[in-house]
Every structure is written in structure tokens, then in C-alpha cells.
Amino acid sequence: MILWKDILKPIAAVVGHNYSIKSVIQKITSAQTDIAFVEKQGALIGYITNGYLLEQIETGKNLDEQIQYKDDILKVPDSLPVEFFHNVTVVIGVNSSGGVSGYSTVNNSRHQLNERQLVHLNEIIHGAGVGIIRTNSQYEIEFMNETAERFLGMPGSFLLSRNYQSLLTMEKDLQNVLDGETLVSVNSTINFKQMSGNFYPLKIEGKITGLVHMFYLREEFEEAVQEVDFVRHLYADLQAVYDSSNEQILVIDEKGTILRVAGKFLNSFWKTKEADQIIGKQIGDFTRRNIFQPNIFELCVKQKKKVTSIQESADQTRVWSVATPVYHEGKLEKVVILSRDITSTAPTHTETEQSTQSFKTEKKQIVYRSGKISALLSNLRRAAKMNSTILLEGESGAGKEVFAHEIHFASLRKDSPFIRVNCGAIPEQLIESELFGYEKGAFTGADRRGKAGLFELAHKGTIFLDEIGDLPLNMQVKLLRVIQEREVARIGGTETIPIDVRIIAATNRDLKEMVADGEFREDLFYRLNVIPLRIPPLRERKEDIFPLAVYFLEQFKRMYNIEKSYTPEAISVLEMYGWPGNIRELENIVERLIVFSQEEWIDREIVLKVLYGEEESKKKQPLVLEMMPLKEAVAELETQLIELGMKKYGTAAKVSEILGVSPATISRRMRKIKK
């Protein structure tokens, strides 16, 4: 775009409206110009040129007579683009202060505009990535741009006036172009250069005067196609990663307008069904309407750094979010927010106080997001309504006691005692007295008043026998009698005491195998195994790792009064770890991360160091966790490798390089995994 101030000339001569012809001639001559502007009371009202002066003299006017001038002038702001007006010969430019900045005649303006447009056109032609060659009707080269010279490896001075038809090798006939036909996507060769492009007839005033060849080197085009194909595959890979992830990715501009949403859309959090319904909305509108709190975008903008927050909606949906500001040349460009739903469907902490006992039972919170735990809790709560004995099986640290609490509080016994017994922690010589109690004087060192056993204390409530597999064989017989008869006898006593208790047993050992080895009574096993429930290890429910990690972090933050947050990369490392110690190990690791991380953010490097130490040999390898057909095992291992690779490297291109397969194979496999 060309502005008036780009082409204006300075005004060299100004004369009064009552000047004589002679005075104006002298003024124009001394100023060495061909135009003078006429002024009246400080304002320009017209102009007079040398040609107009001569016309006045030729008509017989005396040199001392007053001049006549023309007034077809127009004043325009000099910052406006050049345009032309009807019945105007001279344009006077006015600057922002209202002063005259120069002038231009319409003819001169047209000439200047054409020159500048020609310069721009030449810059476009020579700077284009397309070769351009023009010939006349005899196929003689009349013009070629710099790109064509570069493509062909020959200067224009060498090719000008040469017959282009004789230089080209191609299947099509150029005569068709001179007959008015356009040839599209034609392959041709010149000087061993392979080209592809279009031939156009050149028409001037309706007559074909030659042709124009616009082309590119096929080699460069194929490279460009490969780059486009790579970008397309990369986009597909990223979209597959986003769609298969559990995170919502939100992009917000510097003014708070939501631009894009990718990944898993958290519709319950936004109170809307589709992501498209929030695009273009202001993020602040949602917090003002109390859809959720707080506004993490606002926190990020104010603090000018990456921030993390747990956001909560009106219906108690809880979302862990990390907001990262993106700056360009020191100016905020956008904020990217990564969010994940950490809502637990378990009820919050409650406490019940026993009026007849000094036991205070606190319900433990179950934090989960996985379908496996959801299904387990559904079965568990149905079983809790009955008085049947329940056997909880699971690895050490999987949370068996927490689920035992859930059974108790879901039962009709929730207002009665919950007694936990660790069968492996009580010395063998004391376990009978602890479980069943003793009368006064029953043995040396016994309390003079006697003591009620744990079964008595659990009357009307629940007794939780943890690590039941560690119970000695002689005690297994006595426990079997208690379960069968629903009564206990204290050591040293002669009377039996009836009890009404719900028994929940738990073990991290294979009781069936122990029965086969003679280490556990078969009759007791069947008494305990009325309703068996398996607690899956943490590695089988990876969806729960993230909410548990956040839950423990929030607990320790309150305990130690500190501020710490995970980076998304740190969470990815936690989710890929095998967790042989299950939830107990995760809780310990989170506390260790808080101790060892010196910065506000717990990042990937510190998590790797805490989990694996410095030894490469400790790194967890992908593995298949159960027996299955070989074909399924290979597919499972392939899935684990691809998921591990995407977590670690982020792109299918890098994963394909590491695994030694094509990016297309990775993309197909990812789509299959997603389905």
C-alpha cells in the first residue's frame, strides 16, 4: 500500500493571489520549479504552472497584470493511501498537525504509483519460489525471473532470445498454448533439470502474443510434499495422543478468550456437553457465574509464571490444573492449561464415637478414578448389607484396611466398633489372650482385673483380621470354633461369652497354596472364603495413580505448611512406574519427593532419581503380567512399548525411530489402541 506522503514533493514557490504575471515568473524562476501555489490570507487556494503563464501571455495580457490561477486542488491527509478523484489536478498533503507537507499532480501521482507497483511486482516475481519464463509467439524468451535462473542453473542473459520450444523436452505441444489452451501439471526437462508446472497463453488486448511458463523443480516439490506429509502424520499423532490422554488441554489468549480445547473434555466440570460450546467464551465468565473456582488463568497472568491449582465445580467435581504462560518477545501471547479430573466418588472423612466403648473409629477415604475400583466398591457395598464373612485378597500396601473400613461403614454395624487385628504383629504366645481375653489370675503377669479380648470389644461391630495367613495353626483351630459357635472363652475362664461380630479377613498370601502345603487349615479357609474380594494392585489401575499422588501431596502440604506441585512430566513418570509396594509405597514416595525437591515444582528429574536412583539397571521394563496366548502377549507388549515411548518422547516420529518401525505403523497402532 502506497501512501500520499511517500510521493509528495515539497512546495518551492508560494505567491499571493494579487501577484502580477511578471512577479510570478520571477518567483518560479528563482525557485527552479514549474509550479507556484497561490495563497490568500494564509491558505492555499490554487496554483499556476509555467504552461498556464504562457497561455496568459499568448492571449495578449500585459506582464504587469494580475495573474489568473487554477483552483482544481484537493487537500488530503498525507497518511492516507493514494487514490484519484474526479476533477482534481493537484493534491496537497496535510500532516497530522494540520500543516502542508507537500503536493503532487495527478499525472505525477499516477506515474509514481505505477513505478512503485512495478518495483513491488518485480520483487514478487524475483522473490517467488516459482520459476517464470515468458516468450513471444515465436517461442523466443523475452523474460525470466531470478528463480527460473536458479532452477535452470543458467543466467537470463544467456537464455534471452533463445527458442524456448527447442530447449524443452516434453510430451505436450506448445502450439496448443498459442492456440489458447492452458496446460496444467506438465512435466518437462531442460539442461537435465526436471520441472513440473503450467503453461498459459499470454493475451494482450485480446490477442495471444506469446506464452508464460510457471514451474518448480520436481525435486524441491517432492521434498515439500514429504514435509507436508510429515506434518500431517505429526498432527495425526498429536491428535491421537490428546484423544487417548486423560488430560484436557485448554488454550486461552492473553485477554482470557478460550481458543481451543483438546484431549478429554471435562463436561461435568464445565456444565456443558460439547467442547465447541465454550470456544470463544471468556474464562472469567465461568468463575463469575460460580461454575467453578478458582480462575487459574487469572492466577497465572498475575504471577507471570506456571501455577497449579485444584479447581472445584459447584457439584464438587475436582480438577487438578497446571497453567503455563506463553510469552513472545516479552509479551504474553496465551496461557495453556492442562487439567485432569481427580474427583473421588467416595464419601469424605467421617467419625463415629462409641458411647459404651472408648474406641473412636475414623472412616478412611478411598481415592480412585478407575473402573476396576468402581466395580469392586459396587460388589463390596452389596456384600456389606449382609453379615457374611468377607475375605480380602491383595498385595501388601494395596489398601485392604481401607476397603475393610468401607465395608464396615456401608453395613448396619457402622455405629458400632471397628476393631483391627494384625495377626502377624502379635507375638504367638500373646495372640490368644489378645483375641479372646483372660480372667484375673489366669497366668503370671496377667492384669488382676482380667481383660476383655478383641472379639468381645468388637461385639455388635466388625473385627478385621489382617494378615490372616500369619496366624499360627494352633490359633486357627480356636478361631474356627469362634466363627462356628459365635462365642468366645477367656483364658482361665469356665464360661463362654456370646458375641455378635462381622468378620473381615485379609491376606497378601495365597491361602489355597498354603492349604495345599499344610500351612493353613482347609476348614478355616472355607469358613473365611464366603465372599472373596480381590483388591487389584496399583499397577493394574494406573488411572488411580494420579489422584492418589495429588491426594497425598495435599495432605503433606497441610501437614508441613509448604507449597509444592507436580509438573505434568513428573506425573507421567509416576504413572509409568510399576509400584511393587502399591499405595503404601506411593504415599512414602510422595513424602520423599517433598523432602528432596528444592524448588516449588516436583519435576521429572527428581521423580526419576527418587524412584530409580542412579542405577540404570533398576529401570522398569515393559512386561506382560499374566499368562495369555502368545499372539495376545506380543500385542500387549507392543502396546506397552508404544505407550511407554509416547510418554517418554512425545512424538510418533521419535518412537518409530527408537522401535525401528515407520511413523505410519505407530500411528495405526495408536488408533487401534484408542479403539
UniProtKB/TrEMBL annotation:
InterPro entries: AAA+_ATPase (IPR003593), AAA_lid_NorR (IPR058031), Homeodomain-like_sf (IPR009057), HTH_TyrR (IPR030828), P-loop_NTPase (IPR027417), PAS (IPR000014), PAS-like_dom_sf (IPR035965), Sigma_54_int (IPR002078). Residues 366-595 form the Sigma-54 factor interaction domain. Pfam families: AAA_lid_14 (PF25601), HTH_50 (PF18024), PAS_9 (PF13426), Sigma54_activat (PF00158). The keyword Nucleotide-binding applies. The keyword Coiled coil does not apply. One of its GO terms (biological process) is regulation of DNA-templated transcription. Keywords: Aromatic hydrocarbons catabolism, ATP-binding, DNA-binding, Nucleotide-binding, Transcription, Transcription regulation. GO terms for molecular function: ATP binding; DNA binding. PANTHER family: C4-DICARBOXYLATE TRANSPORT TRANSCRIPTIONAL REGULATORY PROTEIN DCTD, TRANSCRIPTIONAL REGULATORY PROTEIN. This is HTH-type transcriptional regulatory protein TyrR. It comes from Siminovitchia terrae.
